[in-house]
Amino acid sequence: MKKNKMLVRDLNLYYMDFQALKKINLDIETNRITALIGPSGCGKSTFLRVLNRMNDLIDGVRIEGSVFLDEEDIYRPEVDVVALRKRVGMVFQRPNPFPMSVYDNVAYGPRVHGIRNKNRLDEIVEHSLRSAALWDEIRDRLFKSALGLSGGQQQRVCIARLLAIEPEVVLMDEPSSALDPISTLKVEELIQILKQEYTIVIVTHNMQQAARVSDLTAFFLNGEIVEFSITDEIFTRPKDQRTEDYITGRFG
Amino acid sequence: MSTRAAFDKALKELQQDILRMASLVEQAVYDSVQSLVKVDVTEASQVIIGDDMIDKLFLEIEEKCIKIIATQQPIARDLRIVITGMKILLNLERMADHAVDIARSAMCLSGQTLTVKPLEYIPQMARLTQQMIKDGLDSYVQSDIEKASAMCALDDDVDYIFAQVFRELINCMMENPEVVMQSTYLLHVCRYLERIADHATNIGEEVIYLVTGEHKELN
Ligand SMILES: Nc1ncnc2c1ncn2[C@@H]1O[C@H](COP(=O)(O)OP(=O)(O)OP(=O)(O)O)[C@@H](O)[C@H]1O
Ligand SMILES: [Mg+2]
Fold first, then answer.
1. Is A37 part of the contact surface with chain B (CB cutoff 8 Å)?
2. Which stretches of chain B drop beneath a pLDDT of 50?
3. Do B199 and B91 touch, CB atoms closer than 8 A?
4. Is the dihedral of CA A119, A120, A121, A125 positive or negative?
5. Fewer beta carbons within 10 angstroms: which end of chain B, N or C?
6. Can you state the angle between helices B121-142 and B5-37, rounded to 10 degrees?
7. Quick one: which H or E segment has residue A226?
8. Which of A13, A19, A46 to mutate to test the pocket of ligand 1 (most atoms within 8 A of CB)?
9. Which residue of A has its CA nearest to B76?
10. How far is A184 from chain B (nearest CA, A)?
11. pTM for the model
């Protein structure tokens, strides 16, 4: 297994003539949790979208530099973007289950990818829900609408839906900002378990959360990475004063 | 403008509290040594009684630190301020206990006239020790690691005097069995002062940790 799952090299990103990311270099380590922190508007979500080419969907975006997934540049024109997004999946801030049953939510991806066998689908659904730490809570409600679940459960359905397509990298953009403290802790615990199998990049505004869950932390400011280091180091003795000011809440 | 004004105020207050505690401890050390040199039982008992107040203050400030941690969840330098604050407090509290030990020795010597020559070293050792406490706290307030290191270097002088007193007191005892009792007490007192200086050194190390985030052994 390679040390680094993804590499970002000299990456610049422009929305028309506004440069949102400036010369970003970052190594994303395999089976580690990398947290991205920084003030609103510093480019965290933009950067996350760079990693699975979600910015392709936005007009006027221009990108320079390279991003490697297992040593292959994902921005080469011949790359199959759908296949890429299967390997590098994303969980969003607000739980966004489809308006259908829990089962159909989780089976959605595998079906799209051509799996029709009922037993096989049952297996995938159970395994994904177990991995998302939701199976025991929800096994009796598999065929009820996912919209009827609590926020924390909905978010875990979304995570299960993502796991069902067996991604290699999981991108999470503030996955628990809409959740209550208990659901948040459940999602955090889940993330810890997931890292055994997946490489995870998580954006969070919650400093304590970044400190609790991540192995590595990158501090973004105005489209640049100011500091990137082992999480313990960032939260005990950051090297850059701007990092210290931000994490201790003395910003601006 | 700080976005955490209330928190910053609490940290500032903590520093003030620690300084208050330090000045009480410094005074207790001074008084205890005075009570010993003069064999003044009244002064010695005041030191012993005064220690209750120091203990109470210690608990009070410790409680504040716990509250800050629980409610503000400090990290990075903020966390170091609180943690080093608690450790400095702990060291001060131990110093005060040693001041009590010295005062107790003074009481045990009640009625005696101290005649041994090495007695003259004790105020000298006490001055150095007090200087260390003062410099330690100054270096804390000013985040001055050079001052902290310089203060810790004084510990060698204290150790040197202690070794000197030790040798001379042994000689006194061998020459004249009548001074064995007072010499033994004085030996203890020197030992307490030497321990107080060690606690001051710990404070210096805490200051260096506070400023740099790295632990450094200084004695
Ligand atoms: N589609 C877009 N078109 C133009 N500018 C954009 C677009 N999306 C984001 N930006 C700008 O790019 C910068 C980075 O935005 P981004 O959403 O990546 O920030 P963020 O760090 O995720 O912020 P938040 O913490 O608030 O989610 C901001 O200045 C934003 O206004
Ligand atoms: Mg964002």
1. no
2. 1
3. yes
4. positive
5. N
6. 180
7. strand A224-230
8. A46
9. A236
10. 18
11. 0.84
8-state DSSP, A111: H
CA distance A61 to A44: 15
Q: Please list, in sequence order, all residues whose beta carbon lies within 8 angstroms of the beta carbon of residue B75, skipping any fewer than 6 positions away.
A: A207, A211, A235, A236, A247, A248
ipTM score for this prediction: 0.72
Residue of chain B whose Cα is closest to the Cα of A233: B76
Nearest CA in chain A to B2: A250
**Beta-carbon neighbours within 5 Å of ion ligand 2:** A 45
- A251/B75 Cβ within 8 A: no
* Backbone φ and ψ of A101, nearest 5°: -70, 160
Task: Yes or no: say if A187 and A158 are a contact pair by the CB < 8 Å rule.
Answer: no
In chain A, what residues touch B2 (CB-CB under 8 Å)?
250
Ligand minimally distant from the alpha carbon of residue A220: 1
Chain B residues whose CB is inside 8 A of the A235 CB are 75-76
Listed as ranges, residues in chain A with pLDDT below 70 are: 252
* A251: chain B residues, CB-CB within 8 Å: 3
Non-local (6+) Cβ contacts of B87 within 8 A are B202, B206
Q: Beta strands A88-91 and A169-173: pairing type?
A: parallel
The percentage of chain B sitting over the pLDDT mark of 90, rounded to a whole number, equals 88
Q: What pLDDT, in 10s, does the model give residues A101-125?
A: 999 999 999 999 899 999 999 999 9
Q: A250 and B4 in contact by Cβ < 8 A?
A: yes
Angle between helices B5-37 and B76-108 in degrees, nearest 10 = 20
* Residue range A137-185, pLDDT digits in tens: 999 999 999 999 998 899 999 999 999 999 999 999 998 887 788 888 8
Q: Give which of A161, A86, A82, A150 is closest to A121, Cα–Cα.
A: A161
Exposure of A252 by Cβ count < 10 A (0-12 exposed, 13-18 middle, 19+ buried)? exposed
Minimal-distance CA residue to ligand 1 atom 22? A45
What number of CA atoms fall less than 13 Å from residue A143's CA on the CB side?
A: 1
Please list the residues that pair with A88 across neighbouring strands: A169
Contact (CB, 8 A) for A133 and A188: no
Pocket residues: Cβ below 6 A from ligand 1: A 15, 18, 20, 38, 40-46, 58
Distance A202 CA to ligand 2 centre (A): 11
